[in-house]
Amino acid sequence: MTNDLDTLATALYARIDDELKASPWLAPARPAVGIAATLSDAELLTLAVTSALLGYSSERRWLRRAGRDFRHLFPCMPGQSGQSGQSGQSGHNKRLRAASALLTHMIRILATDTTLWSDDVWVVDSTPVGCGCSRETAKRSDLAGWAQYGYCASHSRYFWGLRLHLVCTLGGLPVLFAVTDAKADERETLRDMLDTAPDVVASHPSQTIIGDKNHYDREFEHDLAERHLKLLRPTRKGEPERAGAHLFKPLRQVIESINQTLKGQFDLERHGGKSPAGVIVRILSRILALTAAIWHNDKTDQPVKRSLIAYDY
Predict the structure, then answer these.
(1) Which end of the chain is least crowded, N or C, by CB within 10 Å?
(2) Could you write out the three-class secondary structure of the chain?
(3) Number of domains the chain contains
(4) Domain harbouring 178, CATH code
(5) pTM assigned to the model
């Protein structure tokens, strides 16, 4: 199997289509009466992943590019002649927002179908997802009330928006994720992620989680220990040297690199979402794109599973 964007898109489409045939209830609900969609749900998600891999943050620009250069992959592009207005950019956006559950499901399906899923070390961190830069935006946006002002210590800056929390393997594969307001406690968010995915925790006994200093708390570490999870974090001032401290710094760089991939390659902070549903689906599309690239690299025996070079043209 070759390692390029066309092959990845074809393999991803086939996998999503097979999942929908085996589990048709996963498909987003559609009105019983109305014009049937010409773009399938499998094509819809594959189109979103392709857009993320190529770094498009504008749906209008992407649909124009895809209609010109990717008709061999998507013959029934939204907005093409002979289709209804519902199949245009507005309808495409509406359908994609309705597919959030399917996006989440496919992220897990692809992740569990890789050799990286069985890794015994996870890294956890959060990264800002900016949603506006002006005071007027913060006051009038549909995101107001969820999005808040927060501080990013890694880049020494304040921002208005949300936070993406990620639990990943050392190979960069997303295992768990959550989107919260900018001031959410990282320990409580990690607890919530573990509580909502008990099957993942059960299938990874004696897992090691590498976190930063924000994960310090005796009660929190005791809670992780009861789940048979071991926390590796920096030694705080006044504490005795913790086991594994010499491994911490090089391994912590992994999560920073993953965050940079989402921001640099996938333009995470230029998502363009104006509503909670719009922001969520754009974040999910980028996580699915990263997972799909790792999945395809794993299936084609590539030496670097998180490499995106073959798909960036």
Answers:
(1) C
(2) CCCCHHHHHHHHHHHHHHHHHHCHHHCCCCCCCCCCCCCCHHHHHHHHHHHHHCCCCCHHHHHHHHHHHCCCCCCCCCCCCCCCHHHCHHHHHHHHHHCHHHHHHHHHHHHHCCHHHHCCEEEEEEEEEEEECCHHHHHHCCCECCEEEEEECCCCEEEEEEEEEEEEECCCCEEEEEEEECCCCHHHHHHHHHHCCHHHHHCCCCEEEECCHHHCCHHHHHHHHHCCEEEECCCCCCCCCCCCHHHHHHHHHHHHHHHHHHHHHCCHHHCCCCCHHHHHHHHHHHHHHHHHHHHHHHHCCCCCCCCCHHHCC
(3) 1
(4) 3.30.420.10
(5) 0.90
Phi, psi (deg, nearest 5) at residue 169: -80, 170
Q: Which domain holds residue 253?
A: 118-269
Contact 28, 37 (CB under 8 A): no
Spans of the chain, pLDDT less than 50: 81-87
- The 10s digit of each residue's pLDDT in 79-122 is 554 444 344 666 778 888 889 999 999 999 999 999 999 999 99
Q: Report residue 170 as tokens.
A: 């050392």
Does residue 276 sit within a domain?
no
Summarize pLDDT for 126-167 with one digit per residue, the tens.
888 888 777 777 777 888 888 888 888 777 788 888 999 999
Q: What is the dihedral of CA 164, 102, 289, 280, to 10 degrees?
A: -30
Q: If you compute the radius of gyration of the chain from its CA atoms, what whole number of angstroms results? A: 20
- Please report the pLDDT score of residue 81 as a whole number: 43
Domain-embedded: residue 20 = no
Residue at 99 is within a domain: no
Task: Confirm whether 1 is domain-assigned.
Answer: no
